[in-house]
Amino acid sequence: MEKIIRVEGMTCNHCKMAVEGALKKLSGVINAVVSLENKNVTVTFDEEKVTFEQMKEAIEDQGYDVVD
Known about the structure:
Number of strands: 4
Subcellular location: Cytoplasm
CATH architecture: 2-Layer Sandwich
Main location: cytoplasm
CATH class: Alpha Beta
Keywords: Chaperone, Copper, Cytoplasm, Metal-binding
Number of helices: 2
Strand order of the largest sheet: 2-3-1-4
Strand content: 25-35%
Helix content: 25-40%
Structural class: alpha+beta
CATH topology: Alpha-Beta Plaits
Shape: globular
Low-confidence stretches: none
Largest sheet: 4 strands, antiparallel
GO molecular function: copper ion binding
Organism: Tepidibacillus fermentans
Mean pLDDT: 97
């Protein structure tokens, strides 16, 4: 499954790497690609192994805000 998550606060390549890295560490996340321009991250994941709440928490733990 693929989901686009809006994220506020990402401004640079470090932000991109932090969010992608945090998401890719989650079991069930197959890929995560940040678009700084669009202020979002596209996550490909197995919905039976990871929840939106877990992905949201991983992003917020990096210091960014998820916009529902």
